[in-house]
Amino acid sequence: MSAPRLEVDLDKIHHNARTLVSRLAARGISVTAVMKASLGSPEIARTMLRAGVSMIGDSRMENIEAMCRAGIRAPMMLIRAPMISDVPRVIQYADISLNSELDVIRQLSDAANAAGKTHAVVLMVELGDLREGIMPADLLHTAGLVLDMPNIKLKGIGANLACHCGVSPDSRNMDQLSALAHSVEAAFGISLDIVTGGNSANLNWAFSGADTGRINNLRLGESILLGCEPLHRQPIDGLYTDAITLVAEVIESKIKPTQPWGEIAQTAFGEKAPPADRGDIAQAILAIGRQDVDPDGLSSPAGIDIIDASSDHLIIDCGDHPLAVGAEVRFQLNYSATVRSMTSPFVTKVLHASRPGGTAIPVTAPATASPTTNNPRKIA
Ligand SMILES: *Cc1c(COP(=O)(O)O)cnc(C)c1O
Q1: Which CDD domains does the record match to this protein (predicted)?
Q2: What is the pLDDT of residues 277-304, one digit of tens each?
């Protein structure tokens, strides 16, 4: 089988999604499955929908468009504020978008009007993490203007924490979001369908037994794919943490000294401290590099240590067990490594079922590139 490749176990992803959907349902919270780390894979989206998520979310219109074209029929939520240059495409393919700028929403209104459609808008509120969101004091004013815009439905409000500054979702900021929802509803005599409290970082709060108030949706990516919560990167009880595996192939295997020789200047990626002298080691090179993965986000199998990575080479110390050229090494990935590998055109994605007799569905990357995409995907 070709390498490097990501092996994605759809049954494990289904289990993780289903478990989170049912635990959160007990707390009155629905799940938007966030697909941005899956490059909009329609197979993964279908798996999420079978597991009971109520919406599909993505930060990139390319992915949303690809999923729509692949026949995914579910409410599509654009979770990054739309670019004005993307507005026609947002109206065509996304049902809901998360927004924080009136100028953008005005353009969405015009485009929806021209297309004879209604577009649903969730207003994002800044709760302290200092990425996207309207300042809380401006929310009522903004909501009033949005309610007057033709072909726009004010679907709800939301927040995003723990992305820029690591601010944790807790009762204080979540209660503030609930109170803001109440104040919008009271001020305009409306009811908001969605109060979307955040991402996987909200799970500790959601399962803490705290009052969930008006929060009735979370947008989950990492916790479904990797089975862990992102605040302390702890595994979530009952979830698989090994649904995704990266496989790379050995292209050189030699006994080499740990000390370089010659005059030492910068490396391909800048200054580096000289390695400690450990004598000779069994060193191997894997045909994978920074173009394919974030090497800092890889966990190697027992007995293997990652020494360094350049654009195309991962240098490993094989310990007591030298590897043959052509051998494969399997790694677990953190979120950063997952996103980079999923979006690298050099990494084949192999989606498979884990149940006995399940068939592998090899998908050659890029799995979901849309024929009309004119923005080449950037490496994260
Ligand atoms: C990425 C993202 C999510 C999903 O985050 P996870 O930690 O992967 O669950 C949710 N909402 C927004 C706005 C995002 O950018």
Answers
A1: PLPDE_III_AR_like_1 (cd06815)
A2: 999 999 999 999 999 999 999 999 999 9
